[in-house]
Amino acid sequence: MKRLIIASNNAHKVKEIKDMLKEFQFEILSLKDAGIDIEVEEDRDTFMGNAYKKAFEIYETLDEEEKENTLVLSDDSGLAVDHLEGAPGVYSARYAGVAHDDDRNNEKLLEELKDVPEDKRGAQFVTAMVLLGKDLDLRVFGEAKGRILHGLTGNGGFGYDPLFHSDDLGKSFGVASSEEKNRVSHRGNALQNLIKELRKIEDRHRL
């Protein structure tokens, strides 16, 4: 069984990815599970640039034997708000200056949009995803369209989820079930695209 190391210790993200990839025979591990303690500086100016850099640097920490049987899955995700010309973008996790402070990030976003009317609050969640392994380099994107609400709605999900009203669901990610969100979310869409590529590989190997 191949190991698949998710380039994250975010429990929400790890669970979401495990749920989506359960059809494949992978031993799925977080960085902590795999005994990897590395902080990759996300200093690229695109989501895909950051995702590839994380996957590559983590894969390079493995010894040659581990590389034979290990894949690294990395993503970079963020919120792009039309009125803010794509911001917060690659800075989504640290929009308010402190990494992963969801409350402050949400407060700043609401402040930036406080006088913006309903029809100008369009936004997209975007995910770039990379799966690296020996002779394997898969890169996919996913997107979820919606708009930014005027206040937090629901306490589910994480990050900007309670502020994001999904066009597909007709409600915020903050009130959606994990199954609903996985079906239409940016990361869910990226994973679906990744799954399609993995199925193609499996089919080729069965020939």
UniProtKB/TrEMBL annotation:
Decide whether keyword Nucleotide-binding is in the record.
yes
Concerning InterPro entries, the annotation shows: dITP/XTP_pyrophosphatase (IPR020922), ITPase-like_fam (IPR029001), RdgB/HAM1 (IPR002637)
**How is the cofactor bound here?**
Binds 1 Mg(2+) ion per subunit.
What residues does Mg(2+) bind to?
Answer: 41, 76
> Which superkingdom is the protein from?
Bacteria
Q: What is any one of the record's Gene Ontology cellular component terms? A: cytosol
**What is the catalytic activity of this protein?**
ITP + H2O = IMP + diphosphate + H(+); XTP + H2O = XMP + diphosphate + H(+); dITP + H2O = dIMP + diphosphate + H(+)
Catalytic residues (UniProt): 76 (proton acceptor)
Q: Which cofactor does it need?
A: Mg(2+)
Residues binding substrate are 8-13, 77, 158-161, 181, 186-187
What EC number(s) does its UniProt record assign? 3.6.1.66
- Give UniProt keywords alphabetically: Hydrolase, Magnesium, Metal-binding, Nucleotide metabolism, Nucleotide-binding
Q: Tell me, what does this protein do in biology?
A: Pyrophosphatase that catalyzes the hydrolysis of nucleoside triphosphates to their monophosphate derivatives, with a high preference for the non-canonical purine nucleotides XTP (xanthosine triphosphate), dITP (deoxyinosine triphosphate) and ITP. Seems to function as a house-cleaning enzyme that removes non-canonical purine nucleotides from the nucleotide pool, thus preventing their incorporation into DNA/RNA and avoiding chromosomal lesions.
Q: Which family does it belong to?
A: Belongs to the HAM1 NTPase family.
Note the subunit structure.
Homodimer.
- Tell me what this protein is called: dITP/XTP pyrophosphatase
From which source organism is this entry?
Answer: Proteiniclasticum aestuarii
Q: Which gene encodes it?
A: rdgB
